[in-house]
Amino acid sequence: MKTPVTHINLLQRAAPVHTVAWSLAALVAATAIGGSFYGTQLRGRAQEAMRQRDEVAQQLKEVQARMAVQTGEQAKSAQAIALRKELDALQPQAQAAQALIDAVRRAQGGQTDEFARALTAMTGLNEPGLWLTALTVSAGGKRLELQGEAASGASVLRYARRANDSLQPLTLRLDSLELQPAAGATAPGAGTGAVSFRLY
Amino acid sequence: MGFGASIKGWTVVDGEDGPSMCAVSLKTAVRAGARPQVLAVSEQASAGGDTDAAALRDLMERVDHGLPTLVTLARTRYRLRVMPEPAVPQREMSASLQWSLSAESDGLFEDVNLAWMRIPTEEQLPARPRQLYAVMTPKAWLTGRLAVWRQAGLRPKVVDIRETALRNIAAAHERPGEGLALVAVDADGVGMVFTHQGSLYLDRYIEQPLAELQVADPATRVRLHERIALQLLRSIDVVGRSYPFMPVTRVVVAPAPEAVGLIEFLTTQLPLKVEPLDLNQVFDLTKVPALAQSPALQARCVVPLGAALRSAKVAA
Asked: Which of B115, B198, B199 sits opposite A8 (nearest CB)?
């Protein structure tokens, strides 16, 4: 077998040294390029993540603001509802007060002082589900008669007890009670147990 | 160290720093069985010295610029040595050789460009220690010459030596199995190469100025011829003893610059066949009739022509 012929070229440099040097240079360059590229990507990703974080934070702020507005509106609505309920609850007392005013007008010819004292004593009382329809002072202020309606007989009894406590300084006392089922459910919330009463 | 089959040929410049420069362009990419074709030949006288860029530029204008360029160095510009082959991987061979040379010559070879080629004996003589040829040229000098060549528009891809150029010529004349001796006379002496299967096994150079032969009287000329013949016979003997697988049975003598009667002397005195080198057997010279008709020009161009064969596949 013929051995391949070798040719001479004296232009060849110290190949191993240069090869190593160029390899190292290429490795360094590749590492730098790769690092730069990776760093650029990393910075890009970091910037994107920061941008997304800022967007989410902004969206969160907007949602919180909207929730705050809605919460305020809800609070206002709840307050209005509560006020409405309170108004509804006070309506019977307003009617009772109107009845008292009417009664006072009708009694303008009587003893005003005794009537005023009795009325003052009665207006300090408040029994839920009970309202007065008539207040009569007679016998020179010695006799007091109350008429009204209530959601139940129990509330009438509680009212009578508290009325006597209030009338005690006036030396008045309500000893008699007449109860009968109410003819019509005029009182708000009056159910089947509604009664009309007469205290004297 | 080669350039593979993609090379279509070479433009070779020889003696660029001497009194006579020669350039040839050879097309080696030819159809199978055809001879490499010499496209151009040019010889240029030079004032000599290391800075004759103008003459070199003139020379290059007369040859093919499309081919890669090769420069063959003058024999005084390099050293060729036979050395034991270091037992190292091929990639470390140059460094190992450089280290060996610097160790034995006290730093003389530290700053050189070095190339090497094996003397192949591993098949025929596997027990024999391997040897190789190492070629060195001073790095500083070569760097300076590269600058001059660039100034002249010459950008060589290869810097080669004369022995391998002659080896290529001899290899083209070899017959299967034989060892061939090629003798080439130049202005300064007589070079000899001994080849087998295209590889160089031995080289010799006898310093014998051609001018002395030209002016010598017949008796002196015979004495000078005998000196050359004796050296040739000794070399053939060395080859026979060192490389018994390549018997040298023929001596081919290249054309000489002047007719000094060497081939006639060797033909009559040597006990083996002596033949003149016929460049037509190796090269297609139809495009360069001046070269085909001038033995003196052939003598001047035998080295660049041989160097240009480095990528050619030729058979005698």
From this structure: B115
